[in-house]
Amino acid sequence: MGCSKTQTQEDSEFNQCNEERSLCLHSFSDLSHVSAATFMYLLKDCYLYGTDKATPKFKILQLQVKRALNNDPQPGPFTYVVQCMYIVPLLGKTHAEGFSHMLISSLRHLKSVESVQKDFLDAKHLAARLILDIVASIVPHEERILIKLLEAYDIELRDMADALYGSELGDEDLVKAKEHLKQYVQCLMESESYVTAVNLITRFSIQCYDESFLTKLIENNHLEAAEKWAVFMGNEMICLIIQTYLDIKMLKRANELVKQHDLTEKFPDVNYLYKESVLKKLAEKGCWDIAEVRAKKETKLMEYLVYLAMEAGYMEKVEELCQRYSLEGYVNSLVPEEICCGSDYLDLKELILEDIIWVDEIDGLLNSISYIEACKIIGVDCEWKPNFEKGSKPNKVSIIQIASDKKAFIFDLIKLYEDDPKVLDSCFRRIMCSSNILKLELKCFQSYEMLLDIQKLFKGTTGGLSGLSKKILGAGLNKTRRNSNWEQRPLTQNEKEYAALDAVVLVHIFHHVKGQPQFGVTEGCKVEWKSHIVSRVKNSRSTLRF
Predict the structure, then answer these.
(1) Where is the 3'-5' exonuclease domain (predicted)?
(2) What is the model's pTM?
């Protein structure tokens, strides 16, 4: 009656799919008569038929497996999982580790269940046998899975000896079991499987290796394994790893170990050195306000922060901290020659800039745009108030800098947007969408024509714009003010100069590269900068990304 053959076929496939799904759900709801092999193949089918992406599918199946292991698997959930672990490698390498992790992690909540304690104890022997089969490469599982099995089943040396030599164990059997495991540890070391080796050494108290082993772990960046092994070996090795961390300037880890093992008396300066390193990193990122909060309670740290500000040539910050914390005496006590001020940085005066013009009125905006429209090349940059709260959205752009090689304009977007947002957008659209002006750099526009991101011409250069400036012009940019509060008004003269320099330097770098082709060379091939010019015109209401 009008029902096509295709429709009938689709209905048949749909019914078959529903039947398979019903069979699977029924099996999961009662495992008393479902073998481990059947369970695993049904689990794989559930995964393959799922329409979600891999991660959500695994999460859903994880919940199903947790529930299923409460539904009377025989002889018990811990034994059942060991049986499943023998089947998993047969499902294919693609799914093996994921399914193994799913099964083992599903046992965690069952450890405290009274009714399965007998099965847990009985399964330890089987789990130890499985571990030996993995060690002997009879059952192919990843080393990570081996470690998870050891932890999930609380496998001890006696369990391993029982699996090797039977239940009637003597002291010599434990010694032989340890020697057997020691040989496996040596094989792991030869294959550079250091983390697994450390897990076996510490779990089964295998005394082997010396200080050189610790060095090897640190050199290969297995720091957690190195610390675990050091703790296992005792106080002397803990002190050695702390000293090693201090030598290679890993102060955070050194400080944590000193606190954990109450070694302050032996390493009295570590905590202060760590705090100093935190301040230095914050200062390098320009996070002076956060650094100040961290240093507030300790005068010595505050003095160090003042020193960092002087070293960076951030003299208004020096003055601000000295006034706030009465540190003028400390500053006067410093020998000027010992402070390396920011002489390595590019000075705006070297670029012979005629003027920096602050624009916060509509008339000034219109005049500035008229000047910029007559330029052939401009540098563009922007600044916004930093947001240090994790997961929060970045703040809106506060200022935009546009510069030729002679003049720099700093536009106060907060004020101009409040006064007349339509005129503001129209003015920037005239600049950004002009095919007569080459724009260097971009961070805050949705539509533009003739844009050149000059940093893309030098892919191997590190350190951002500052690194590029150092490579091309011979001096980097002082970024100490990068995290200033750019919404605060008025900006200081130093902040204005910092903002202007970021835009002006782009123009000078471009002229330098254009005039001296060797700076655009990669293995003897000149970079053709014109091919990197891009346009992006969108029919949006606003050119600016407010």
Answers:
(1) 357-512
(2) 0.68
